[in-house]
Amino acid sequence: MSKRYRANNERIDAINSFGRSIGKRSGFKCEWCGSTEDLRVWDYQPGLSPNMDTLAMLCRHCRELTGEANNDPNELRSIRNALWSNIPAVAEGAATVLARCNEAWARDAINQSYLKNDIIEMLLGKFHIRNK
To answer: What is the 3-state secondary structure (H, E, C) of 55-118?
Structure first.
């Protein structure tokens, strides 16, 4: 078995070990939209060791939003409230997806969120959305 394969399996096991705790934290609902369908733990920062701040419980639809660059802005409105979460994986992850849509309402929501200013500036600059 290769080292990379073994490391990946260890990471998956580490993420899965948080499943019950993340589920309890989320009330067994998607932490972005509130759905109870097809929930899985989502790894917001795969470069870091998994912990309660880097993992979120997301439904299939919201997990799909994380990988698509050109999401329908109207579909993204359902995750806007996640910006006010005190859990980094929830708030920052949703902000990252919203920033990619390049809509004024998304920019405004990110600016009004409780995210740290450096994170807001990074997201808005990264996706070429400018503050008014």
So the answer is: EEEECHHHHHHHHCCCCCHHHHHHHHHHHHCCCHHHHHHHHHHHHHCCCHHHHHHHHHCCCCHH
Residues in the chain: 132
The boundaries of the domain holding residue 12 are: 3-126
pLDDT tier at 1, thresholds 50, 70, 90? low
Between CA 43 and CA 49, with CA 48 as vertex, the angle to 5 degrees is 85
The answer to whether residue 131 is domain-embedded is no
pLDDT the model gives residue 132: 42
Report CA 100 to chain centroid distance, whole Å: 13
pLDDT digits (tens, 9 = 90+) for 40-49: 999 999 989 9
Q: What's the domain count of the chain?
A: 1
* pTM > 0.90: no
In a domain, 105, yes or no: yes
13 sits in which H/E element: helix 3-16
Domain assignment present for residue 58? The answer is yes
